[in-house]
Amino acid sequence: MQTEEIVLRLEPWRVKQRRPAWKPLIEDGEGAATASKFCGTPWTGPDAPWPDCGHCRQPLQPFLQLDLGDLPAELGQPFGIGLLQLFYCTRDECEGYGGWEPFADDLSRVRVVHPSGPMPAASPQRVSFPTKRIVGWDRFLDLPKPEEHRELGLKYTYDHKAGTVRLECEELGLVFDSIRDAYLAENVANARLGDKLGGWPAWVQNVEYPSCPRCERRMVFVFQVDSEHNVPFMFGDAGCGHITQCPEHKEVVAFAWACH
Ligand SMILES: [Zn+2]
Ligand SMILES: [Zn+2]
Question: What domains can be seen in the chain, in order of their start residue?
Answer without folding.
Answer: 3-258 (2.30.320.10)
